[in-house]
Write a structure and sequence with these properties.
The protein is of the alpha/beta class and about 375 residues long. It folds into two domains: about 1-270, TIM Barrel; about 285-370, no CATH class. It is built from 15 helices and 16 strands. The protein has helices spanning about 45-50, 60-65, 65-70, 75-80, 90-95, 125-135, 150-175, 200-210, 230-240, 255-265, 275-280, 310-315, 320-325, 330-355, 360-375; strands at about 1-10, 10-20, 20-25, 25-30, 55, 85-90, 100-105, 110, 120, 140, 190-195, 215-220, 250, 270, 285, 290. Helix 7 packs parallel to helix 8 (about 200-210). It is globular, with a radius of gyration of 20 Å. The relative contact order is 0.14. Belongs to the queuine tRNA-ribosyltransferase family. Homodimer. Within each dimer, one monomer is responsible for RNA recognition and catalysis, while the other monomer binds to the replacement base PreQ1. It holds the Pfam family TGT.
Length: about 375
Amino acid sequence: MFKLKNTDNRARRGEFITPHGTIQTPVFMNVGTLAAIKGAVSSMDLKDIGCQVELSNTYHLHLRPGDEVIKKLGGLHKFMNWDQPILTDSGGFQVFSLSKMRKIKEEGVYFNSHIDGRKIFMGPEESMQIQSNLASTIAMAFDECIENPSPRNYVLNSVDRTTRWLERCKNEMDKLNSQEDTINKKQMLFGINQGGVYEDIRIQHAKTISQFDLDGYAIGGLAVGETHEEMYRVIEAVEPFLPKDKPRYLMGVGMPSNILEAVSRGVDFFDCVLPARNGRHGHVFTSEGKINLFNAKFELDDRPIDEGCQCPACQNYTRAYIRHLFKAKEMLAMRLCVLHNLYFYNKLMEDIRIAIDENRFEEFKNEKLFQWNGKA
C-alpha cells in the first residue's frame, strides 16, 4: 500500500496506493467538510489547483444530507463528482469541539446536534457504518480528542478507551467491507495516536496501536491548545514508534511553517481548514509571507497576489481588483483567495516532494522559513 521512495534525514518521500488512485506524499488534504470547499470551489477546481486528496466530515454529513442519502446516490465520490481519494474523519474531533453538548461513555458519545439540538449517538460501530455509507477511500477510527493540557489520569483513561474503540472500529470495518451492498469494499482504516503532551503515554499508545496492522496512523490531539514547541516535541517522541512502512498523518495542522517542521520530523499527511478560512477573509499566503488584502496599501496595487504564482487568481486578477471585490462584498473575492491559498499549499507540497527526492529538504525548509519569517 505505501512505498517509501526516499528519505532525507527524517523527511520521507512516498507513494500511497489506494482504491481511488496513488497519493504522492508528503501531501496536504484539501478540507471540504460538507463535501464542498467553503468559498465556492468545485471538484473540477480542485483538479486545476493540484489537489490529490479531499477530506470530508463524518459527523456533519451524517446530519445533512444524511449518510444514507449519500449511499443511495452512489457514495461520496459520485455525489460530489470527485474521482480521486477522499478521507473522512470519524466524528471524534466533534467529541472535543462540542464539549458542552456531549457525554462520553464506554459505548460511545451522546451528542446534541449543533443544528437543531436533537439527540445523536455515535460510537465506533456507528462511525464506521456512516463512513462505509459515504464510501470514502480512507476512514478514520473513532477516538476522543483530548484538550491540552489535561490531567494525566484522565489522559490515561481516555487513551485506553480510544484503544478499545479502535479494536471495535477494525472489527466493524472488516464486517462492513465484506457485505454485498457496501460501495467501497476496499475502504482503508487509519488509527489515531493520542496522549496529550505526555511523551510516555504517546509512545506506549503508538506501540499499542501499531500492533493492529492498519493502513495508516495519525497523530491526533495536537493544535488544540499546546505550543508549537510542544507539538514538535510530541511528534519527535512518537514518530520512531509508528510503523515505517505506513503513512503518518498529523491531524489539523496547520500553517506552512508547521508543515515544513512536521515533514522534517517524518510526517506524510496533513489537513487544515486554515488556508480556505484565511482566504475567505482576505488573508493570502505568498512567497514573501502572509498578507491581508483589506489593507489600504493594496488599493492601487496592480500586481497579482503572488508574482510567479500559476493559480487562476494570480494568472488573471490584481490585488487591487480582489480588494475591491472584498470591499464590495462580492463572493468572487472569497473564491479567488481560497483558490490561491489551496494552490499555494498544494504547490508547497509538490516542492517539498521534489526537495526530498533531491536530498536537499533541510536547505529548502530553511530557505522558505527565511522568506516567510525573516529567519530559519
